[in-house]
Structure formats: structure tokens, C-alpha cells
Amino acid sequence: MNDFFYKYIDLVTIIIALGWTLGASTFTIKKGSKNLRRALVPLVFLGPVLLISCMSTHLAEITFHAIDTNFTGKFSLRFYLYALYLMALVLGNTGIFLYRGTQQYLRSPLPNRSSILRPAALIGIILFPLLWLTPLSFMMYAACGISVGASFWVRKKDQPEGDTDMFTLQEATAQ
Q1: Higher-confidence residue: 160 or 138?
Q2: Parent domain of 74
Q3: Considering its fold, how many domains does the chain have in total?
Q4: For helices 114-127 and 135-153, angle between their N-to-C axes, nearest 10 degrees
Q5: 173 in a domain, yes or no?
Q6: Is 169 part of any domain?
């Protein structure tokens, strides 16, 4: 079991994130607003889903390591372990807020982009000090940046009813 976490946990995380992204995108395209660019919907979901799945597997890996070291008698509760748990919980919870905001933005007829921008800004603030410590934070920045960027282009502009180039009947007969 120890070898599984060290060898395959990243692959499992990527598979979970891609499957969840495709499932959420398919559900949103079927149940959501009709004026969506379908090719961009998975990109909007990629950031929050990747963040949630990475932090969930990170929590599982830390917990497994703590249990493993407890059985071997080498466990000690240090600030480092507490910080690892706390950061994964905070980022995972913020990812859930971003995921819910993304769902709300894509499904509502009157979209409000602040439901995506506020949690994304909070994630950016939380991850900023970690940029120099771990490359995983840069990957989370990139994924959330792609999601926020795609949210600007995922909705089609509302087009007015009828042909606006034609004269109205009154204008045509007035000449």
C-alpha cells in the first residue's frame, strides 16, 4: 500500500480530475444555459476540479503517512504536519467555493462573474507565498488562471431577435 501512494497517487489524481471535469461539463451542457461555447466548458471546470482532487488526495496521502508512522512508532505531531493538513483543507474548501461558483455562473440565465472571480482571487492570495516553495502551487495557479480566462469567453453574446439590418415596415414605407 505504501508503494501505491508513492507511485500512483498522482496518476489517480489526474484520472479523477479529468473524469470529474468531463462529467461536470457534460451535465452542465445538458442542464445549463443554451448560450455556452461547448468546447470551453471543460476548461472552466478544470481549475476547481483539479484543485479539489489534488487537495483530497494530498489529505489522503498525509493521513496514510501519519497512520503508517504511528504503527512503526515514529509518529510525532509537529507543526509541519498540522500545516500540511490545514493548507490542504483551506485550499480544498476554496476550490469547492470556486466549483460552486462555476456551476452557478454556467447554469444561470443572468450570469454573475463575481461568483468565479472572488474564490479565484482568494486562491491566488493563498497560493502566492507557496510559489517559491513548491511547483504544485504554480500548477494550481495555471489551472485556475485557465478557468478564469475561459470564463470570459464561454458565454456567447446574446443576439437580438430578428434581423437588425432590415428596415422596419414604417421606415421602409416612409421613404
Answers
A1: 138
A2: 2-152
A3: 1
A4: 160
A5: no
A6: no
